[in-house]
């Protein structure tokens, strides 16, 4: 593993190797002999050129020479520009602006939704109130990414008490799911896990909310009734699932333009009347309407008709959990990282940054090619260890090997890994971290950030797993269900194996970095499946260590390590010279066509700063 150089990516290596030798076939040899004979025959013919012929030949030669000079004249500057771009370590700024605020900000990767959250704060609501109102909107506008049929993880920081908490609304496996056919858990009716979204909203509101519940739900009801323009992202997601939606009557009910008899396209007004009616029940009865109430009964009835094994008792039994946030002190950056424990991916983000913290990165590490190459090599090896370690983890309530988790989180383990990283890539065996199963992808994800000037912060990531989740929609409730049963391992006895009531491992890692005085310095979260953790780690490195502002940190092209095939993916904007340097270090590399999208908010004495990732965009609002 990890010793081959990718010929597709190492363009410079190929060009330096010179032209390849061609070994012809017998037919090629025969044609060559015939050509040679023709040439010898032609040499025997005497050619007489007139003065007029000489003039014509001279003119042609002069024209060709002039054309060649023009080509070189235009070509050399282009070649020079290409060579300069190849070795340029400076990242061009994206079109996504750096936004500055004084009092508060709400960031959503969904259009239209951040203003709803900002309006909640303007009316006296808390940061958690704003997050809940924004998330409800996110689920209505981008149903392919999240919704009340999925799950969510909140990381909440209270500046007054200097404490951080996690609300774990991750889905759970239904009762008896150990008996489900493992090959049918990836999509469809059996892929549905017990939704935790609404339970988490209600728990977060009961602990940290100020505004009446009804006022958090009503804006999204109004949006669903009135309708909203279909965003570019939703239109693309619908187009990608055109066949599945067209062949499913329930999905057509929600995502077909009835007048034009096709899926909605960008800019068309989409309404959600069934979902609006469900939200009205939730507005009046809170989460109880869903977890065993009238709404839950309608939902289960619809799902049973479509082959799901989710039962009313599963909804009754579900409870979102209040947990203590994982804490990791990053001494060189003078910050403390708060992130979600298992089944969230906070332990892995903490491990990766703990390894990298010891390198004492600074702006000097991106000042020249040699230093940058070494830094990104260290980042990749740290990602490698983190992603491999994740394969051994699962729901902490069910985890049998707690000692292993404690060791992964320890400073000693981070130091051991750091001392094991040399100048070339290593196989996973070199780090003595076993690799049990391929990580799963979560592409249906949305993230929301809220930060206020008094230092209260919320990072919330929500998901239905794949885009459009299970592709099972309840026609009477308008609720699209998740496919998070696919996030369990197929291994029968693994840490992430299926068990009734168990939460599957997740790539979600809403993170808050706090200064030594207890003030939030950086709040991160994003979408992109397994790429989320790698993306957040690199944005944190750019901001906390290399001195970039949040826009520059988010704009910077990123790398991702994929453990199944031991391959490194780089974004198109990643400097070509560094790609080739990675090849020389032994990495297999390829261009990344589905990068993560990481949103970031920072705070310092000058104010609050926010940036939407240009890779996805969304909405920002504040004061």
TrEMBL record:
<dbReference type="GO" id="GO:0036374">
    <property type="term" value="F:glutathione hydrolase activity"/>
</dbReference>
<dbReference type="InterPro" id="IPR043137">
    <property type="entry name" value="GGT_ssub_C"/>
</dbReference>
<keyword id="KW-0472">Membrane</keyword>
<feature type="binding site">
    <location>
        <begin position="463"/>
        <end position="465"/>
    </location>
    <ligand>
        <name>L-glutamate</name>
    </ligand>
</feature>
<dbReference type="InterPro" id="IPR000101">
    <property type="entry name" value="GGT_peptidase"/>
</dbReference>
<feature type="binding site">
    <location>
        <begin position="506"/>
        <end position="507"/>
    </location>
    <ligand>
        <name>L-glutamate</name>
    </ligand>
</feature>
<feature type="transmembrane region" description="Helical">
    <location>
        <begin position="55"/>
        <end position="79"/>
    </location>
</feature>
<dbReference type="GO" id="GO:0005886">
    <property type="term" value="C:plasma membrane"/>
</dbReference>
<feature type="binding site">
    <location>
        <position position="487"/>
    </location>
    <ligand>
        <name>L-glutamate</name>
    </ligand>
</feature>
<dbReference type="Pfam" id="PF01019">
    <property type="entry name" value="G_glu_transpept"/>
</dbReference>
<dbReference type="GO" id="GO:0006751">
    <property type="term" value="P:glutathione catabolic process"/>
</dbReference>
<dbReference type="InterPro" id="IPR043138">
    <property type="entry name" value="GGT_lsub"/>
</dbReference>
<keyword id="KW-0812">Transmembrane</keyword>
<feature type="compositionally biased region" description="Basic and acidic residues">
    <location>
        <begin position="24"/>
        <end position="33"/>
    </location>
</feature>
<keyword id="KW-1133">Transmembrane helix</keyword>
<feature type="region of interest" description="Disordered">
    <location>
        <begin position="1"/>
        <end position="42"/>
    </location>
</feature>
<dbReference type="InterPro" id="IPR029055">
    <property type="entry name" value="Ntn_hydrolases_N"/>
</dbReference>
<feature type="binding site">
    <location>
        <position position="529"/>
    </location>
    <ligand>
        <name>L-glutamate</name>
    </ligand>
</feature>
<protein>
    <submittedName>
        <fullName>Uncharacterized protein</fullName>
    </submittedName>
</protein>
<feature type="binding site">
    <location>
        <position position="170"/>
    </location>
    <ligand>
        <name>L-glutamate</name>
    </ligand>
</feature>
